[in-house]
Amino acid sequence: MPHQSSLFDQDPPHDPAPESAMQAATFAAVTVTALRFSERGLSAAQQRFNRLLERSETLARRIAAVQDMADAHRRQHAQKVYPLEVRRDALMQDMVRLLDERLRKPGLSRTQKRQAREILCELAAPFALAGDEAMRELHDAHGEQSLDEQQRFEAEATQDFLEDVFGQKFGEDVDFSDPEAMLRASMEHMRRAAQAGQATQDGQDARDKPKARRAKPARLKKAEAEAQDASAALRTIFRQLASALHPDRETDPVERARKTALMSEANAAYDRRDLLALLQLQLRADLANGQTVAKLAHDKLAALTALLKERADVLQRELAVAEQQIRMEFGLLRFGAISEGVLRRHIADQQSELQFDISQMQRDLRTIRDDAVFKRWLREQHRPARDAF
After folding, report:
1. What is the CA radius of gyration of the chain?
2. So what's the pLDDT on residue 376?
3. Residue 228: what pLDDT?
4. DSSP string of 43-101, one letter each residue
5. Using an 8 Å Cβ cutoff, are 87 and 346 in contact?
6. Whole-angstrom Cα distance, residue 234 to residue 278?
7. What is the pLDDT of residue 194?
8. Residue pair 304/297 in contact by the 8 Å Cβ criterion
9. Distance in angstroms (rounded) separating the CA atoms of residues 87 and 139
10. Structure confidence at residue 267 (pLDDT)
11. What is the pLDDT of residues 305-356, one digit of tens each?
C-alpha cells in the first residue's frame, strides 16, 4: 500500500471549539490533507478518490466565493444603486401624474391622447403590480384594459398553451397568474405522465420478459454493495459523534452549549451525507486525528469514494443554483460569467444608466408642461419604436 501523505508526524493540537473562520478552515484543510493519497504509485481507484476530493473542495470553495461576492455586492448595490432607483421611481410616478393631468385638458388629438395613455400605462403598471393602488387607479382609468383584465387574459392564454402541450385539462385550483403555481402544476403533470409511461413500459417488459428470473449484473451488484458500505461508514462516523457530543450528558453549561452547537452541525452534515464535514467535526471534537482519518481512507476507499462522488454531484447542483440566483438578483446574463470584475462593472453600468434616466426625466418634467414641447415629446417617445419596426 502506498504511503499516505499527511501533514502530521505527530497528532495535531486541537481546539475543541473553533472561534474563527480561520480555525474552521484549518480543520477543513487537515481533513482534506489527511485523506489525500500521496502521488507515488497510486492505483486507479486512489487516483479517482483524489480527483473527487479535489473536486469537492473546489466546488465548496466556489460556492462560498459566490455567496461572499453576493453579500459584498449586495451592500454596494444598496449604497450606490438603490438610492438612484428610488429617485427614478419617484420621477416615473411624477410623470404618470403629469400625463394624467394633461390628458384631462383639451387640446390633444386622438393620436396624441393614445400615445400619452400608452406611456402612462407603461410607467404605472410596475408600481400597480407591486401594490400601489394610486398607480393602479390611474392605469385602469386610461388603459384599454384594467390590470385585472390583462392578468386574466394572460392566465387564460397560458392555461390554453399548457393544456395543448400536455393534451389534458388542468384543474380549476391552479392559479395561472402565479408563475410558481403554474410551474408546480406543469411539473406535476410531467411527473404523472412519466409515471404513466413507466407503468406502461413496465407492463410491456413484464410481458416480454422470460419467466426465469435473471441474475443481477455484477456491475449492479458492486454498485449496490458500495452504496451500502458508504451509508454504513457515514452512519458509523455519525454515531461516534452523537455518542460523544450528546449535550444531555454534560453538566457544565458552557460545554453543553458547545456540544449542542456541534451536534446540530453533525445532524445537518449527516442529513446531507457530507463526509468531509463529519470528519472535520470529529477533529474539532477531539475524536480523531490526522492518522485516524488517513487510515479510514485506506480501509474504506470504495465507500468513501462513493460518498465523495455523491457529495460532489450535490455541490455541483448547489453551485449552479447559487450562480443562477446571483444572476437573477443582479440582472446578469443568464449564462454569463460571474466574477468580482463582472459584478463591479455591472453595478457601475447600472449607476450610469440610472443617472442618465434621472437627468432625462428631470428635463422632461421641466419642459413638457409647455404644450408645443409636450406634443413634440410624444412624437419623440414613439419614434424609436417606429425606427425599430
Report:
1. 31
2. 92
3. 81
4. -HHHHHHHHHHHHHHHHHHHHHHHHHHHHHHHHHIIIIIHHHHHHHHHHHHHHHHHHHH
5. no
6. 8
7. 63
8. yes
9. 21
10. 92
11. 888 898 899 999 999 999 999 998 888 887 788 888 999 999 999 999 999 9
318 exposed, middle or buried (CB, 10 Å; 0-12, 13-18, 19+)? Answer: middle
Locate 120 and state its grid cell.
402612462
212 Cβ neighbours under 8 A, 6+ residues apart: none
- The amino acid that residue 254 corresponds to is V
Q: Work out the number of other CB atoms within 10 angstroms of the CB of residue 200.
A: 10
Residue closest to 99 by CA, chosen among 85, 87, 115: 115
CA separation for the pair 314, 93 (Å, rounded): 46
Helix, strand, coil distribution of the chain in percent, nearest 5: 75, 0, 25
Task: Give the model's pLDDT for residue 289.
Answer: 72
Q: Where are the alpha helices (DSSP H) in 246-274?
A: 253-271
DSSP symbol at 249: G
Q: Which amino acid is at 356?
A: F
Dist. CA 224–CA 337, nearest whole Å: 38
Q: Look at residues 85, 95, 86 and name the one whose alpha carbon lies nearest to residue 138.
A: 95
Q: List, in order, residues 6 or more apart from 343 with CB less than 8 Å away.
A: 69, 73, 326, 330, 332
Q: Name residues of the chain where pLDDT drops below 50.
A: 1-20, 385-389
Predicted local distance difference test score (pLDDT) of residue 109: 94
This prediction's pTM: 0.61
Residues recorded for the chain: 389
Closest to 230 (Cα-Cα) out of 219, 222, 218 = 222
Whose cell is 409511461? That residue is: 197
**Taking the chain, what is the end-to-end CA distance rounded to the nearest angstrom?**
73
